[in-house]
Amino acid sequence: MSSDLIRSTYRGLWWALMLRGLFAIALGAFILWRPIDSLATFALVIAFWAMFSGFVEIIHSIDLRRVYPHGRLARIGGLVSVGFGIAAFGGGVVAFLNPPATLAAILGLISGFALLSGVLLVMGAFRLSSLKHQLIHSANPARLSG
């Protein structure tokens, strides 16, 4: 396994994981901070974001198979995100029909999902950084810098 492959895979994935994680944390915190300002439309935006994020996570896990064969957990996480997005889309439609009855529940689910997935994505970015250094050193032990 070449260290160039490891470096290029790392560069392509680390920032994507970190930015998605930080965005999710900020989004979850904003929803908790300003729930009254949030609308049923926001639930639909979150639904599409969760589905997109899930598809990206599945694609990344497939891309990582060459350097990290234990990516099943990431694929499962991506499927959970897609499933959540579908459920949130249904909840967003219901919220348009009866906003007061459903908005609080939807916002709670969205903020919980955003905070949890954001923390997991940031942790994944740091683990990816650690894995990069381990793989580079094992592929090229004479080279000590990553």
In short:
The protein has helices at 3-33, 40-63, 72-97, 99-139.
What is the overall number of helices? 4
Percentage of residues in strands: under 5%
Q: Helix-strand pattern, N to C?
A: HHHH
Largest sheet features = none
Rg is 18 Å
Tell me the overall shape.
elongated
- Secondary-structure content class: mainly alpha
- How helix-rich are the residues, as a percent range? over 70%
Mean pLDDT score:
79
Kindly report how far apart the N and C termini lie. Answer: 15 Å
Number of DSSP strand runs: 0
Runs in which pLDDT lies below 50 for 5 or more consecutive residues are none
Number of structural units classed as domains: 1
Write the layout of secondary structure elements.
Blueprint: H1 3-33, H2 40-63, H3 72-97, H4 99-139
Helix pairs in contact: 1-4, 2-3, 3-4
How would you characterize this protein structure?
The chain is an all-alpha fold. It has one domain. Helix content is 84%, strand content 0%. The protein is built from 4 helices and no strands. Helix 1 (3-33) runs antiparallel to helix 4. The radius of gyration is 18 Å and the shape is elongated. The model has no long low-confidence stretch (mean pLDDT 79).
